[in-house]
Amino acid sequence: MSMSDRTKIVLxxxxxxxRDVRTQFGALCWRRRGGEVQVLLVTTRRTxxxxxxxxxxxxxxxxxxxxxxxxxxxxxxxxxxxxxxxxIYTYTKEMPDDDLPCVVALFPLRVTTVHKRWPEMKExxxxxxxxxxxxxxxxxxxxxxxxxxxxPRRLI
Length: 156
Fold this sequence. Notes:
By secondary structure, the protein is an alpha+beta fold. Helices cover 26% and strands 37% of the residues.
């Protein structure tokens, strides 16, 4: 096989097309208050939709660790996150040039610290809500189901 043949094969296989599905990792930040499980949602920057904190994969980090890092940056929370995927959901990320289909793997984060100041506090709102309310606030049906069915006792 000549060098030009190998180059052609790489070019035919490797390009990322705009419509390819992208993977993200999300943190289902949760706590107990008065016997009720609450989850933390944040607003997106552009559309102001309610969503769990989420991120693109981070080199050298596990998916749960990347999601926990993003929970700190987007929502100002820290906690414990097992490497357990609660489920996946899909959404379309609206971009200026094109919309990107995304699949999000969601990891639980039991919140132990809530900071008064955090990196993206001027760009987002955060809100603690019960599971039923959270399921109504999000727009993605698969995410709503994950929120409505979340039970931290299953994590043990």
